[in-house]
Amino acid sequence: MGVLGVVRQIASRPAPLLGLLIVAAFYGWSLVEGLLQLVGSLTHNTALGWALLQSNPFTPSTSNSLLPPSFSHLMGTDDLGRDIWTRVLYAAPTDALVSAVVVGGGILVGSLIGIPAGYIGGAVEEVNMRFTDLFLAFPALILAVAIEATFGRQLVYAILALIIVWWPSYARLFRAEALRIKNLRFIDAALLSGLRDRSIMAKHMIPSSLNTMVSYATIDLGNSILVYSILCFLGLGIPAPAPEWGSMTSLGLYYFPQWWWYSLLPGVVITVVVVGAALLGDGLRDVLSGGA
Amino acid sequence: MEVLRVEGLTVDYGVGGGTVHALRDVSLSIQEGEIVGVVGESGSGKSTLALAVSRLLRSPPAVQRGGSITFRGSEISQMQPSEIDRLRGTGIFMVFQDPFLSLNPLMKVKDQIAEVIAVRTKRSSSPYDRSSAEGEAVAHLKTVRIGDAEDIAERYPHQISGGQIQRVMLAMALAARPQLLVADEPTTALDVTTQAQILAVLKEIVGTTKMGVLYVTHDLAVAGVICDRMAVLYGGMVQEAGPTDKILFEPKHPYTVGLMNSIPSKTKKEGPLTAIRGSFNPEGLGGICSFAPRCPLVREECRRGIPAQNPVDGRVVRCINYGENYEQ
């Protein structure tokens, strides 16, 4: 079944289709907007970053502060009179980047630790999995807060912190997959062909285990956005005035409940993306495991 | 030149506190270009023997208690994994019983064969070229009589049939150019026509490449077609071993005789089919002839010890009817 076949099966049921549309819209928009921001900052023409938006997400306009949602301001305005929907759109690429890099990094580190643990076993397994347990023993959020508080408030450190708390669950998943796959006949056949352990793991074990990872990773994209938003909510994201979904939700709390839209609507956006990823991931699992 | 010599091989499985004797004092040898059959029923230890020779026995639970496996003069049963790796592919290759999952479902047929070619060329330190390797893969597929080899080479394992997968495995064996091929019932899962074709291809390959083949099967007819010599395994022991013609046409051991009598005749009406009474039970066999509980000729002396192998008429027979000798 090719990629097209998977998409067709996803699209044939309402819940996974909804998830697919949300995730596609989120990453599609993030790609376009992110490229514009990147080119804008490289060419010292930051205005390019809001070329597609209805207004400048940074310029305050005190006469418009705290306006409720309306047709001219879909999600209302914040305390400085900036359009919240515009700022949500401007912040999207950051969350897209964080989720993709964190989940990708988690898979990479997790496979490097987990596959040898499951395939070789013995001492390698003990060392790798106890090392993994060490990281799992810390509450993830507190570990991330500690790392960021130590190194500073920068996107790079936030991503690094998240990868550090993210890989252990993938290491466990990859180990479980390796244990399953290593008993399949084609691994014996590869051994008999004279392949070394390293190439068996790289060529046969990792590709075969990715099938299981795809659905889990898709759900995880949403989770990583959620945790990143929590970091930002706690004031550990990228510094103001740059917009971020979690920090917008956090700042808006000062104006809650009278000016409810300031905090609530960015939170709703986070929820929609997280739920969308979960719906798509669930659908992918059903399709890829050959069931339902 | 002798490719494989197994001497007194004894393998136990530790299962839930107890042990099961899978192989006891098994000896056989294979010369270049020779096909040696190992025939036995379920539980006789024939697959354990195949896995032991290709060093794929999972340990635990399998433990080699004694004996030696010598491949081209070097003892392999105590080798380190890295030394075994160097022997695999170009030295020993194996074709499995079950075509299901013996190829990686994520790799095209040609890539899988090319992988073996890459290992072989790397070992002979000649340059590896991807496109010529793919060409060679297609050539091997043609040798094993896969119609439309170019098309099959581009497919994934789930897009081809079980018979085709077994042929692809044989093509991989050709690509690896092993000195010893271990075939663990490679045709059992296939229909009779395909089985005959694959046996013919295998025989042809052995004729041209001079590889030795350890052919494991439960099917006496298949063994009769393909093997030069054979060993009949029962209860983990070789009961009778010698040239195929001798064993099939003048069986001596009561078990072999029983097996031959169980083959229904094509020409005459026989009434009820003959069978060997009872069924194999691995318990309580320590120290006596393992076939004694089912043997029609059983007598007091059969339970005195494990019968030794008696040379009789060009083969060896482990039965006291041919000389009352016991293992020490």
The whole-number mean of residue pLDDT values of chain B reads 86
Taking the alpha carbons of the first and last residues of chain A, their distance comes to 15 Å
Number of strands of chain A: 0
Which term fits the overall shape of chain B? globular
**Major sheet strand order of chain B:** 6-7-8-3-9-10-12-11
Q: Radius of gyration of chain B, rounded?
A: 21 Å
How many distinct helices of chain A? 10
Radius of gyration of chain A: 22 Å
Instruction: Report the uncertain regions of chain B.
Output: none
Spatial shape of chain A = elongated
Most strands sheet of chain B: 8 strands, mixed
Strand content of chain A: under 5%
List keywords for this structure.
heterodimer, A: 292 residues, mainly alpha, elongated, B: 328 residues, alpha/beta, eight-stranded mixed beta sheet, four-stranded antiparallel beta sheet, 10 helices, 12 strands
What report would you give on this structure?
The complex is a heterodimer of chains A (292) and B (328). Chain A has 292 residues and is an all-alpha fold. Chain A is elongated and about 75 Å long. Chain A starts with a helix and ends with a helix. The model of chain A has no long low-confidence stretch (mean pLDDT 88). Chain B has 328 residues and is of the alpha/beta class. Chain B is built from ten helices and twelve strands. In chain B, the strands form two sheets. Chain B has an eight-stranded mixed beta sheet with strand order 6-7-8-3-9-10-12-11, sandwiched between helices. A four-stranded antiparallel beta sheet of chain B has the order 2-1-4-5, with helices on one face. In chain B, strand 11 and strand 12 form a beta hairpin. In chain B, helix 3 packs across helix 4, helix 3 packs parallel to helix 6 and helix 4 crosses helix 6. Chain B starts with a strand and ends in an 11-residue tail after the last strand. At the A-B interface, helix 7 and helix 8 of A face strand 6, helix 3 and helix 6 of B.
